[in-house]
Design brief:
- The complex is a heterodimer of chains A (about 260) and B (about 100).
- Chain A is an alpha/beta fold.
- Chain A has ten helices and eleven strands.
- In chain A, a hairpin with a 2-residue loop joins strand 8 and strand 9.
- Chain B is built from three helices and five strands.
- The chains are: A alpha/beta (about 260), B alpha+beta (about 100).
- The interface between A and B is medium-sized, with 22 and 19 residues.
Chain lengths: ~260, ~100
Amino acid sequence: MRIRLLDTGPSAGALNMGIDEAVLLSVSRGESPPSLRFYGWKPSCITVGYFQSMQEEVDLGACRHRGIDAVRRITGGGAVFHQAEITYSIVLPAGRGLACDDILESYRGICGALVLGLARLGIESAFSPINDITSGGRKVSGNAQTRKQGCLLQHGTVLLDLDLDLMFSLLKVPAEKLKGRLIEDAKARVVSLRDLLGRPVGFEEARSALASGFAAVLAGSGDELEEGELSGSELAEGRIIASERFSSLAWNLRR
Amino acid sequence: MTLRKDHKVAAGKLIRVRIEVEQARALEVRVGGDFFAHPEDAFEEAEASLSGTGLAALPAAAAAAFSRPGLVIFGAGAADIAEALRRAIDENQAP
């Protein structure tokens, strides 16, 4: 099976989530091939998991003040600050290969592609169930999966760099006096590619390495990665979904 | 009255429950957190099914509702959700 490889560059959070869903819908209708997309975020954005309350998790006033978007995802999991990172999303018909029926196994398979990609950068890492990838015991990637319309959508991030002070200025913490300790704890638990390699890693370098990891893993199930483009109708549908859902308070503040 | 409780599952995710209460019944129950549930709709149906349940029966009703066939939750279990609700209710009744 041919898997389309997309690089859509940086977009606003609502559009990024809209495109992810538009690709899923297009694949489910048989209009687009299964796809792997890499993208970034401009402006920076906080996303919260489907079951989280935006108002409980995010300081929306601080986000507005700093020009940072806040969007609720269609996938579960926790709040993520998307700043200096590379994000991927993969959409596959459910039921075979990396989209096998066993959800934890499919996390393991897709995260395995990322682990292989990180190895191409010289980073040793491992899948850490349920949904993380760690290196030296510290989290370098978080991932989230949903299944809709007969398809799997998994998206996730790999940290290129990390600004925990900024991140914690945007997230609500139980008590202001705990913020310093939370930042110290997070420094011990989270790591970026820059920290691991002692040099900055750009989006392009990371994209190339991660795509190579996916290509190798997909080849194992007879699938081939092939560069392609987002179709005009996918982009148009993504914009509509971004506007009607991911930019709306009714969606973002629903829980 | 609103009851709230955060409950960190051992080696799992954080559950944040919110119960809107009137006359010892749950008008609305929200079970939030950073867990994963598949399919998401089934989780929300289980959540909605708890509306109107008496507080005393709520933890057991939740344990049953979130154990429904076809619903898979990662990072938390139906028993953990029941425990979070029990703690929210018990803390409110503590002297």
